[in-house]
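Quarterly update from the structural biology core.
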Amino acid sequence: MISFSLDRIKFTIDFSFFAVIAFLCIIDGGKNIISAFSVCIIHETGHLIPMIISGEKINSVRICGAGIRIIPYKNPLKPVFMDIVILAGGSAFNLITGFIIILLTENISLFAAMNIIIGVFNLLPYRNFDGGEIILTLMEYYGNEFIKYNAEKIVFFMGIITSLLIFAAAYSHGIINLTLIFTLVYLMII
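Predicted structure, tokenized:
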């Protein structure tokens, strides 16, 4: 792990980030690395713009094999609506970018597809994804005491159900491979 600070923001680059770069170079000769980075930058820009507009301060940035995670300082006075806008902003930017490319080019390019897939994927209800964070935020703000107390468990259970549904859909279409199985199990436990 590589760590450094710039202007009071702590940056951490996990070695899994370099492993993913190496993997991309192996599977396609590195042809899509720039596209993959661009999709990540578009996603994170979708989080950063509402953060900046709301005056949110960045505490740290973690770059790992699963992507980039921007961690703000906690602000208990910030309205819950702004939390939701910030969390949904990344996927919104990816989806808008993907659909604009399709409208302008009248076809689905790899870059458009990558944006749409990442936009939808990040909205899945897994704890470390934007979708899971949105659900947790809503439950902690609007839920009764039982829901607030069990919010983490509820989102974990939603992740298990989501993985099982994805597996069932893939299986019903004859798509079964170890990568899919390992990915779904990994998503359930992170």
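The longest strand covers residues 58-64.
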